[in-house]
Automatic annotation (TrEMBL):
The chain crosses the membrane at residues 12-33, 53-75, 87-105, 117-142, 163-181, 187-206, 241-265, 277-299, 308-326, 332-350, 371-393, 399-418. Keywords: Cell inner membrane, Cell membrane, Membrane, Transmembrane, Transmembrane helix, Transport. The keyword DNA-binding does not apply. Signal peptide: none annotated. This is MFS transporter. Residues 14-423 form the Major facilitator superfamily (MFS) profile domain. PROSITE patterns: MFS (PS50850), SUGAR_TRANSPORT_1 (PS00216). It comes from the Bacteria. It is a multi-pass membrane protein. It is found in: Cell inner membrane.
Length: 425
């Protein structure tokens, strides 16, 4: 099958188009994560017990993960039927509008219980948008890639996660540095949500300039289209869906423990300031970003499955030493711990998009890759911060590490069981 670039598409447009969308989507997603720890407990879930307020806030954080499979089903259907380009544009707008609306929400003090309800609705919209965005962005890259460089091309949209995290964390760091606590709570936290509209406009413009992928056009010309991709997945690709989902679980668990859980732990339990905690997190994200291309290069040489297998085994071992660094309370040791965890995250995150996409043929690839990734988000991330906080409070940090190790072992088993067959592009 022809894998050369479509005449209207340049390599720069393809890779930048896949990267810019995921950067915007993850920026929007992560500013909510930061606000869910630093702001929303006070403004939307006020109470006498700060821990309960945080858990209630993080519960709204989890809503998006349940919405993401719905986004996968809806956008995946149209992505496999209508095309990658149009679907990606609509997914981006869905995410962007939901995020901007959060920036204008009144607080609990203004409208009572309606405030957290509206917050949950907006969070749901974020989840639907991201559920449709990720799979399309990955396919935009790898369906234009030479067979021996699929992981390399597929890592460009993956880079959107650390870039989005740096932008979101950096924005909150600047706001907390230049605004006093009162001003930050009153209006400062709203700035990144509203300002994301500018990023969405840029992404919208870039996406409109990109034409359809060659793999999709070829499948359409050869009349390989299926009537309802989601039903075809459930009928013919149950094994790929099941084990693909559990392959990606570790990716989510390690990431949200290193970000949301650690941000809460560092500020609430280790009593680092918001600024210190954000600086430590932003520094560790550089390791996340750095090891994504490294893992992609390795994956193209030894195989995506083998790369993920080695990374999952390393994460399982990492979990056994979870409390060794954090119980010290040392800034240096905690930062080292974060950097190590984020490095491992880079190793598993770089090839995961390509690996999941290769499990499915072109006609159901958008739906299949998106659904496996986002179902893994429910299992591995939706409640991971809350579970970790509960485990740490009741059993200690060591058991949080064991929780991570168990997730990694599940991924290892899934990788050993899942089919090695790669579908034609």
């Amino acid at each position: 099958m022809n894998t050369t670039l479509h005449p209207q598409n340049s390599l720069r447009h393809v890779l930048f188009g896949s990267l810019i969308g995921t950067t915007i989507e993850f920026f929007d997603f992560y500013i909510y994560a930061n606000a869910a720890v630093l702001v929303f407990p006070q403004l939307f879930f006020p109470g006498t017990d700060s821990t309960i307020s945080v858990l209630q806030s993080l519960a709204t954080f989890s809503i998006a993960f349940f919405a993401r499979p719905l986004g996968s089903a809806i956008f995946g259907h149209y992505g496999d039927k209508v095309g990658r380009k149009t679907t990606l544009v609509v997914a981006l707008l869905t995410m962007g509008i939901s995020t901007v609306c959060i920036g204008f929400l009144p607080s609990y003090a203004n409208i009572g219980i309606t405030a957290p309800i509206l917050l949950m609705l907006c969070r749901f919209g974020q989840g639907v948008g991201l559920g449709g965005e990720w799979g399309g962005a990955v396919l935009l890259a790898i369906e234009n890639a030479p067979p021996h460089k699929r992981a390399w091309y597929g890592m460009f949209p993956q880079l959107g996660a650390p870039i989005g995290l740096v932008l979101s964390g950096g924005t909150f760091l600047l706001l907390t540095s230049y605004l006093n606590a009162q001003d930050f709570l009153e209006y400062g936290w709203r700035i990144p949500f509203i300002a994301s509209s500018l990023l969405v406009l840029v992404g919208f413009y870039i996406r409109l300039k990109i034409t359809e992928t060659v793999a999709f056009e070829n499948a359409k010309q050869e009349q390989e289209e299926v009537k309802v991709p989601f039903i075809t997945l459930l009928k013919s690709y149950r094994k790929e869906l099941f084990f693909g989902t559990f392959t990606a679980v570790t990716t989510f668990v390690v990431f949200y423990l290193m970000t949301v859980f650690m941000l809460n732990w560092n500020t609430k339990e280790l009593h680092f300031s918001n600024k210190e905690a954000l600086l430590m997190q932003l520094f560790s994200v550089l390791f996340f970003a750095g090891f994504i291309p490294v893992s992609a290069l390795i994956a193209d040489k030894i195989g995506r499955r083998k790369m993920l297998l080695y990374a999952s085994i390393a994460i399982a071992l990492f979990g056994l030493f979870f409390s060794l660094f954090l119980n010290s309370g040392s800034t240096i040791l905690v930062t080292f711990f974060l950097c190590l965890g984020m490095s491992l995250m880079g190793f598993t995150y770089g090839p995961i998009g390509t690996f999941l996409s290769e499990l499915f043929p072109t006609t159901v690839r958008y739906s299949g890759a998106s659904l496996t990734f986002n179902l893994a988000g429910i299992i591995g991330a939706a409640f991971a911060p809350m579970i970790a906080i509960w485990i740490a409070t009741n059993y200690g940090l060591a058991f949080v590490g064991y929780y991570l190790s168990v997730a990694a072992v599940i991924s290892v088993i899934s990788l050993l069981v899942i089919s090695k067959k790669e579908h034609q592009f």
